[in-house]
Design a protein that fits this description.
Blueprint (H helix, E strand, L loop, with lengths): L8 E2 L10 H7 L6 E9 L2 E8 L2 E7 L5 E7 L2 E13 L5 E9 L5 E8 L5 E8 L2 H15 L9 H12 L2 E3 L13
Antiparallel strand pairs: 1-2, 2-3, 3-4, 5-6, 6-7, 7-8, 8-9, 9-10
Length: about 180
């Protein structure tokens, strides 16, 4: 089954975006949230049309080799290499995996676009390295210094919260839930 790449999907309200959370913390810049996702298919090309914070990005996706793109997020410019791969998930739904490697850091944003049978889209965000890696490192350091242990009393809950921030799952809004033209 081929996914419906031509449609534009409005996404649920979210604070997730293209910039990995750990890189956002280092840069002190946070997304206003992703709004729309679509794809443009050309002659042997695919571009991700992504709207975030009111700005639309046309990001070329490389399948054999990464394609370079300059991502401008709120005046912060990031050189990224973008790769993609079509696959299927455990339910045999078509999936497009897109990886944005931030070339001047060790961070990557991983996006899995799941094309659901009902025509909807699910976007699964992940990043590498994740904040969990940093928290585990910090946890070990703080234990050795025997200070700040209160932060880690319920470490499983802390891991859950970090996972929700770094790896959210966002669904498209069904067309019947979209406001009528002129109403918003």
């Amino acid at each position: 089954m081929r996914p419906a790449l031509a449609q534009t999907s409005r996404l649920e309200e979210t604070r997730a975006g293209l910039l990995p959370a750990i890189l956002g913390c280092m840069e002190d810049w946070y997304t206003k949230g992703s709004e729309k996702a679509a794809f443009r298919v050309g002659d042997n090309t695919l571009s991700l049309l992504w709207t975030e914070g009111g700005v639309e990005y046309c990001i070329p996706v490389g399948f054999e080799n990464a394609l370079e793109y300059e991502l401008d997020l709120g005046g912060n410019r990031f050189a990224v290499g973008v790769t993609g791969r079509f696959t299927a998930n455990e339910d045999d739904e078509p999936v497009l995996k897109v990886t944005l490697c931030f070339l001047e850091s060790s961070s990557s944003r991983l996006l899995k676009f799941v094309f659901r049978p009902d025509g909807g889209l699910t976007v699964k965000f992940d990043e590498a390295p994740g904040l969990l890696v940093a928290m585990r490192s910090l946890q070990g350091t703080m234990k050795s210094q025997s200070q700040g242990l209160d932060l880690f009393k319920d470490i499983d809950y802390l891991h859950y919260l970090i996972h929700r921030v770094c790896s959210p799952v966002v669904h498209s809004v069904p067309p019947e839930e979209l406001p009528a033209p002129g109403q918003a």
